[in-house]
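protein under study:
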Amino acid sequence: MASPLPELQGGEGIILSNSAKKVESKGGLESSDKKSPILIFLYFHKAIRNELDSLHRLAMAFATGQTVDVRSLFERYRFLMFIYKHHCYAEDEVIFPALDMRVKNVAQTYSLEHKGESSLFDQLFELLNSYMENDESFPRELASCTGALKTSLIQHMAKEEEQVFPLLIEKFSLEEQSSLIWQFVCSIPVDMVAELLPWLASSISPVECQDMHKCLSKIIPEEKLLQQIIFTWMEGRNGTKTFGSCINNPQDQYCTNSTASAIIHEFNNVASACEQYKIGKRKYMESSNDASDTVGTHPINEILFWHNAIKRELNEIAEEARKIQLSGDFTNISDFDDRLQFIAEVCIFHSIGEDKVIFPAIDGEFSFFQEHGEEESQFNEFKCLIESIQMAGANSNSAADFYAKLCLHADQMMETIQRHFYNEEVQVLPLAQKHFSFRRQKELLYQSLCVMPLKLIERVLPWLVGSLTEDEAKNFLKNMWSAAPSSDTALVTLFTGWACKGRNQGLCLSSAIGCCPAKKNDIEEDIVRSRSAFASGFCSKDRAVSLCGDDNKRPAKRNTPVSCKNSNAPNPSGTLSSHEPSCTNQSCCVPGLGVINNNLGLSSLSTTKSLRSLSFSSYAPALNSSLFVWEADNSSSGMGYIERPIDIIFKFHKAISKDLENLDIESGKLSDCDETLLQQFTGRFRLLWGFYRAHSNAEDDIVFPALESKEALHNVSHSYMLDHKQEEKLFEDISCVLSELSHLHESLQRADMMEDSTGSNMELPVAHGDDCILKYGELATKLQGMCKSIRVSLDHHILREEFELWPLFVRHFSVEEQDKIVGRIIGTTGAEVLQSILPWVTSALTQDEQNKMMDTWKQATKNTMFNEWLNEYCKGPTESSVQNETLETRITREDREFQKTLDQSDQMFKPGWKDIFRMNQNELESEIRRVYSDSTLDPRRKAYLVQNLLTSRWIAAQQKLPQTKSGETSNVDDIMGCSPSFRDQVKQVFGCDHYKRNCKLRAACCGNLFACRFCHDKVSDHSMDRKATLEMMCMLCLKIQAVGPICTTPECSGFSMAKYYCNICKFFDDERTIYHCPFCNLCRVGRGLGIDYFHCMTCNCCLGIKLVNHKCLEKGLETNCPICCDFLFTSSATVRALPCGHYMHSACFQAYTCSHYTCPICSKSLGDMGVYFGMLDALLAAEELPEEYRDRYQDILCNDCDQKGTARFHWLYHKCRLCGSYNTRVIKSETAKPNSSASHQ
């Protein structure tokens, strides 16, 4: 499938897409010394693109019958899903909230796109789970879904590179960018980072890998231990198993680097005695561990430590809730909320570890999924209740109810978790103790710990160890050390140091178990200096490690202004004071991450819940697991929905979605080489493309600028405009494939015809035919995937628009403003487009939706002739067309019914129509009296007969029309004007002085032939209604026939009457470019609406496209020219719009402005009169008034600014002191000398 954007290719350094090159141009990536940390994201995007390309190629090969390892393919899909979704969750938790604080209205769209991509993964894995070997349709469906996923992800990444990354580089310093990337890394679970980094390093070239190393060295804090952890993971790609190979087999050993590369090349020069000591201790512990593997307490019982700590914390939260209820004090509600947030994250990640590691290892079908879901729901309800309390305020009348609910929720949550923990302890622990060795139990506990992100582990370990006795804490650390693989030495050292921070005064416990992470005496002086800030920065009250020392080499990176909230783990009251003193008074000197949790005030609870759902299932979180608080507000706005004018866009969305669905379905049938089906498919695709283009252009040109015009909505639509560009590229790609498919189909047809004609069985043509058939099948499969991709892309685009953008119209636009926007959209749509769009849209709507849509259109076009046009094109024949029905047909039908009735009575005279036409006036009156005197006739029939007798002469005149039409040899010489007329007699060009055309119109009023209505009106005492014209005469064959674009007589062979023909106006023109405006319901000179003209619904006139911002005057054109008094609306002469909103003929304007400069209607200036007024200033300055007039003043009214004021006495010129205009008039001849402050009002 063709990619919507240029892709990144590996092997020769990074080749950025066009959007990524724009990131470079911002100045953040151009210097090798100051490369932007955002470069990391570009490398990740490249790796994702490469993986998508590879998967799509394999899926296409599978769909075309080639042999593919299906199991390996499925594992790669699963690995890609885990990698990409964790990347998205980290973006939603760190990058987008930070950007939203600096640049509004950008982040939400990309978060919504993450949800759409998550649903694509859902669909893909639903398809994968339904795989059956004999399912013939499965490979094609897999290729289509893979193509759709590839398109969606590549479009999303390209948009990020074009919009998000430049903003990050522009709005954040290099230090702040580094801080954001570091928080990003620390927000991803440890086990996933250990898989992500080596995969990323293996997906890029060696040169790029070296650049990424340099970039990471600037991002990671300048602490050797932290850098050793990250670069150990990076180096693990040569020996580490892929994530996809172990994710479904939790019974396997933890996927890590089996090689003993604990210290990588970057740290060879700074190896310390502490590191040598740790490695020595490590070997001793491993050798002695196996000997005691069957004695002592089961390590799996450490789950009880977690249970007890969680229950203790929840008890304290419940007690705090009761205190709040009794005191009614809201001052600590934020701290209470932070505490709840922390314990919720601990519970959810604890359940992730159980679902992902422990339960599958014990029994693949064993799960507490229902209990975990119930706990999540209760945490969410508890948090929502706290938010409602904060919103209500301390003086709320319902405060008592809030307090009661708070206590009730706390008690319910405690009861649920206690019941859940009891069931686990009874059902799970005995099985684990029975079936697993001590070492395996330790490994399971360590693996379950590593499903947490680093920033949470930094807070959790001090909190957990602080709740244990000293012996329990020692055993916990000892088991963690013995369970961790050798490649995780630096990581477990960090964990141990963090755990020791939970003891009294942060004293070290690990030396007592032989695994001290950092002894001061064993660390070289330079490492002591670099780490001392972290040790001194720990605050036991908050149970977290922070950076707060003057020795920190990069303080700006870890204390950046992008963070605004510190909600570290709360201190469980009494936990520290109840423990015995540590066996050593030496503090651990491991560094902290320097990451403030809940970055930028964004709650990570919903993200944590989503990660839990990802960890135990292949399915993504539901749409209601919102990542942003304000998304819930938008969704609630759907309650009590009220129809709005702007909702007309929804109707187009519905029609587009319906056509996309049909396109997707029909594309699966193209592999049958059916010519008719291919032609129909191509036609429907072209039609949909045209409608989509008109819709997207209306949004880009009208709707989105209207949104951006509101100050609060800047940047809200940029992402959607990028979507339109990408979707247009998808349509172009599909069009190219369709063309190639059509050419290939023609080649196959020609080959079949040659084979049939020659009857030969030559090998070469047969082989060529087989190749064509194979290529046709490949193209059909590719096209099916592309149609799936365009459907998914547009469906998600539409859903995001309706979710994010359309609620903004309710809050920021009045109904009148929405009507104006709808009017502008419709006003740029030509009649031909409307004729196609209206049936297309209405076919996708219910009758009620159709009525509402038409009501909206009529309201927006209430000042126009749109309803008249609509009646003619959308509601069948109008009354006028029914009345103009062929008289011969109508009279014949009525005569037949009349004769059928009269046959029942022999007493009545039965004249035929020919007899009636031969009667004189006396005979007609006699027949009328006979009809009235006949008592056998029904009164309705009497009235009918009398009416026809009275109008018989008019009917006779009209009956000449069908007689002439039916008989081509009829004599037309009796009709006036039956000879041709010429616009150029010398060149024999048909037409008249007014128009060039090849026909004459037969006036319905008098039956005579004229070249145009102006020629008719010139010689007649009445006006011609050209819309009532039914017949014309071809000036080539002189045959009268029904009006139409071509001559229907055989001798003319389709001779065109004119280049342009309008069926409504019965208008022909062979010279100019003409369009029919459905709102004027007239033909106008120009290329068309939306091209060089638009129709203003207020003024009810067509204006140049550059006059979008003009002064509107309701029905301003429906008046006479103020100079010549001709009706402007239907005038064929050029009309000029004046600045004041009035109109006059251009010719009249030229003549009028020779002696006037003000509007003849409102007296405002007709243009910029600055030069003329400057001349008057000079003239008056040189003029000296007589002495008796010098002190006189006159009251004036300025026609330009509509303000009253005073001016010095003059016979002709009076200048407005406010605007400087001389376009004024005197309203009082003399007045007192004004004060300077009161000269205007």
User: Anything to note?
Assistant: The chain has a mean pLDDT of 75. The first helix runs from residue 18 to 28.
